Amino acid sequence: MFFWLSKLFTLLIEPLTYIFILVVLALLFHRNPRFVKWCLGLALGVFLVFGTYFAPDLLTHLLENQYQIPAEVPRVDAVVVLAGIMNLKLSTPEYIEFNEGIERILTGIQMVKQGHARTLLISGGTGSLYDQEKKEAPLLRNFAIEFGVPESQILMEFTSRNTYENAIQTKRIMQEHGISQIMLVTTAIHLPRAMACFHKLGIDPIAYPVDFQLAPDRKYYISDIIPGPGAFRRSSAVLHEYIGLLAYKLAGYI
């Protein structure tokens, strides 16, 4: 039930959704000037706050700064790569269409090939509400093999649909294969929620954030005060994480 509700609720955290709703309300109640001004003013506020980079950058910074890339990469039993980085509709066993976050699997491959991890553990099925047939983990497994990781050094699970289920299934595989120490690789803004899920289950991974959105020396220019699609995408991504943290806390997942 939580999975279905979370997917439906995702639609309600998009800033553009609220702008659309407010404009529609203004049109429907056009005979009430005071209400129209209130709706349009609020829509403009949402547009400016989440359509420019200042607010989403601040929210992103607060998440990305919670974990840093280790100064010295330790040796672990397994590097765990969380899926959720491809367009499953367009992907096939012969061709993978990646979204943002390809650094996750590339980092996992690198860790194994450089000897920092004995095993590459790929966790993730599909987060789609409509198509449960295609799974990410098998496709990422084939991708890793093509990039030189021996098949014998790859484990995977393809039943998990969200971050909490990633943690549950990873723990199961760890117990089955005698894995004790793991490195957890995922997008930097997603790492706080992922780490919290693993900690809840009594697992203490070494955090390895990738796919950072903010440069350490981020500078702002005049163009950044003009609302644009890039800022809205960042707003949607970071709001998804904050709402996810709240929802997971309420559900007892973290």
Automatic annotation (TrEMBL):
Keywords: Membrane, Transmembrane, Transmembrane helix
Residues of the DUF218 domain: 77-244
The protein's name in its UniProt record: DUF218 domain-containing protein
TM ranges: 6-28, 35-55
Protein's GO biological process: Gram-negative-bacterium-type cell wall biogenesis; peptidoglycan metabolic process
GO CC entries: plasma membrane
Keyword RNA-binding: no
